[in-house]
């Protein structure tokens, strides 16, 4: 269980969970889901049922509705990158704060005065000026030495985010003239429970073959 949060009315506790359920043939894996535990009657409700992808974050808006941050097989054309730790203000305003980063921009806290206008967000911190002052690696067409790096999925798919730590060393290799391929398990956290289960438990299944075929092509 992760990311516990009390509802606005104090009657429910929201939390995220992913499961590995034993079955006759092994385990059944699911992606992260958003659940609600009722403090009054003890019931558990599965929220955002229609979103069958991976839920990596959530917040409660001004009216008590749930805002989820998910991973799906599509692209945001407004702000490419990763949005994390979303926080919403009270009913008096429609402001939203979040942590944003991308391959070319280090993590900072951003604020938008309208939750429906994400592109109007602006940074309110400057804690990573050191990285901002340096020239971040950008894509360019040329022959490079290549290396294949797995994303250590299928739950933790690699994202367009800036991570300055030992675990995410692919950008360091890329900035030193290496062509880095992170297979990302074909974005397994964005294609549903069946896909992620096949990738994890059946490595030569269709998802697994797709990954190997992509590596062979490169």
What features would you highlight for this structure?
four-stranded antiparallel sheet, alpha+beta, 35% strand, 4 helices, 218 residues
- The helix content, as a percent range, equals 10-25%
Number of strands: 14
The dominant shape is flat
Mean pLDDT: 72
Number of DSSP helical runs: 4
Integer-rounded radius of gyration? 20 Å
Beta-strand level of the residues, as a percent range?
25-35%
Q: Gap between N and C termini, in Å?
A: 39 Å
Q: Describe the largest sheet.
A: 4 strands, antiparallel
Strand line-up of the largest beta sheet: 1-2-5-6
- Structural class by helix and strand composition: alpha+beta
Succession of helices and strands: EEEEEEEEEEEEHEHEHH
Q: In words, what does this structure look like?
A:
The structure is a single chain. By secondary structure, the chain is α+β, with helices and mostly antiparallel strands. It has 3 domains: about 1-55, no CATH class; about 75-135; about 135-218, no CATH class. About 15% of the residues lie in helices and about 35% in strands. The protein has helices at about 130-135, 170-175, 195-200, 205-215, and strands at about 1-5, 10-15, 20-25, 25-30, 35-40, 45, 55-60, 65-70, 80-90, 95-100, 105-110, 120-125, 145-150, 180. The protein has a 4-stranded antiparallel sheet with strand order 1-2-5-6, with no helix packed on it. It is flat and about 60 Å long. About 20% of the residues are buried.
């Amino acid at each position: 269980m992760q990311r516990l949060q009390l509802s606005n009315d104090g009657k429910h506790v929201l939390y995220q969970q992913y499961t590995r359920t034993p079955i006759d043939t092994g385990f059944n894996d699911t992606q992260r889901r958003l659940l609600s535990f009722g403090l009054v009657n003890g019931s558990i409700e599965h929220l955002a049922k229609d979103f069958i992808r991976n839920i990596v974050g959530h917040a409660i808006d001004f009216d008590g509705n749930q805002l989820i941050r998910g991973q799906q097989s599509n692209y945001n054309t407004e702000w490419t990158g990763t949005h994390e730790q979303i926080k919403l203000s009270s009913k008096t305003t429609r402001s939203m704060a979040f942590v944003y980063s991308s391959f070319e921009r280090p993590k900072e806290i951003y604020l938008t005065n309208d939750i429906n206008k994400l592109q109007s967000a602006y940074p309110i911190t400057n804690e990573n000026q050191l990285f901002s002052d340096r020239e971040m690696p950008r894509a360019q067409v040329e022959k490079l030495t290549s290396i294949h790096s797995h994303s250590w999925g299928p739950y933790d798919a690699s994202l367009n985010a800036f991570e300055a730590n030992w675990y995410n060393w692919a950008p360091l290799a890329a900035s030193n003239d290496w062509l880095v391929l992170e297979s990302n398990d074909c974005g397994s956290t964005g294609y549903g429970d069946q896909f992620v289960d096949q990738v994890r438990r059946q490595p030569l299944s269709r998802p697994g073959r797709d990954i190997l075929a992509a590596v062979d092509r490169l």
